[in-house]
Amino acid sequence: MRIRNFWIVSAMVGASICSSAQWLSHPAPRTPRAKDGKPILSAPAPRAPNGKPDLSGIWEVESSPLKEIEHMLLPGGENGLGEDVPSKYFLNFFSDFPFGKEPFQPAAGAGPRHPER
Q1: Which among 53, 48, 60, 91 has a CA at the least distance from the CA of 73?
Q2: What predicted TM-score, i.e. pTM, was given to this entire model?
Q3: Residue 115 is assigned to a structural domain of this protein
Q4: Sign of CA dihedral 66, 79, 24, 61
Q5: Is the pLDDT of residue 117 over 60?
Q6: Which of the chain's ends, N or C, has fewer CB atoms near its CB within 10 Å?
Q7: Is residue 70 a part of any domain in this protein?
Q8: CA dist., res. 79 & res. 88, Å (int)
Q9: How far apart are CA 111 and CA 11, in angstroms?
Q10: pLDDT tens digit string along 28-66?
Q11: Is the pLDDT of residue 19 over 60?
Q12: Residue 108: pLDDT band by 50, 70, 90 thresholds?
C-alpha cells in the first residue's frame, strides 16, 4: 500500500511541475511592444531562421457578431456546442458566398462518381 501511495504522490508532484509550464498570459519576448507594454499589432511578423514568417503560437478566431450568425444557430440563440458564440466560418466555411455560388471546381458539382460494377 505504501508503494502505491508513493507513486500517486509522485504523479501528483510531477503533474504540478508540468502544469506550471502552461502560461497562456506569458508575454512573448520577441513581440515588439510600445512604451506602455502593449504589443504593436502592425509590426511585421517575426521571421524563422529560414526567413519565412514564424507563425507559431496560439491562434484563435474572433467570434462573429450574434446578428450575423443567428440564422445558423438553434432556436433561442444556442449554438449546440456549449461554448461561446463561434466564428461564422466554423459554422459554414463558405458563409461569405451566396448559396450555389461557392468557388468549387466544376467536377465537385457533378455529384459522386461510382465505379462501374
Answers
A1: 91
A2: 0.42
A3: no
A4: negative
A5: no
A6: C
A7: yes
A8: 11
A9: 54
A10: 777 889 999 888 989 888 888 999 988 887 677 788 888
A11: no
A12: confident
Q: State residue 21's pLDDT score.
A: 54
Tell me, yes or no, whether 72 lies in a domain: yes
Q: Look-up: residue for cell 502593449?
A: 38
What mean pLDDT value characterizes the chain?
Answer: 78
Q: What is the DSSP string of 61-76?
A: PPPPPHHHHGGGSPTT
Residue 113 lies in a domain: no
Overall domain count for the chain: 1
Enclosing domain of residue 81: 63-99
From residue 24, give the alpha-carbon distance in Å to each of 11, 21, 58: 23, 9, 9
Residue whose cell numbers read 500517486:
8
